[in-house]
User: What shape does this take?
Amino acid sequence: MSCLDAIRCVVFDFDGTLVESNAIKRGAYFEILAETPGSAPAVEAVLRDNPGTDRYGVLARVHEALSARGAGPLPSVEALVAAYSRICEERVAACSPLPGALETLATLPETHALYLDSATPTDALERVVEKRGWRRFFRGVFGGPASKLDNLRAIAEREGIAAEEMLYVGDGVTDREAAAAFGCRFLGLEAPAQDLPDGSPLALLVGEIAARSAG
Assistant: This one.
């Protein structure tokens, strides 16, 4: 039996793991508040102090900070979230995949169950994945408002597998923490693509699965 058989399910984060979208999502916060004086420092502070927080949490905190400073008039948090979501869906659906992503997604479903686990709201994530033509690669798409940890648990239950039979692939601290809390294996892609071998972190995925399964 190949050591690859020890991993039965590979779960991917989406932004910054499969697509070059982290800069898009970060920039959208500043863009939707560009007409509000003092918004840029407020956004910067919230993003710095609340890593891994979803769009609702980020924009609620920014709105609170700006309101406390007397900035205004401000759209409601709901209106800001809607504006942010429109920008992100349009641009993330069209942005470049990370090097190796398509090759990885085209190869792994032959031997492993693939899922997405992202902080992006599930309905928005589903739309983006459909627009990219990637839905066929995944048995399921899991997003917010559930946590990444809760999504990992739900995926394992759906597949009927133990935590050690799952690999979570992500680019952030929250991805690593979710994997550690759940007890599954983790492949971190924190470094920029150009700083990793062959400029393609996902090109090493199958080898990583083999090495970690054998370990």
Notes: The beta strands are 9-12, 113-121, 140-144, 166-170, 185-188. The first strand starts at residue 9 and ends at 12.
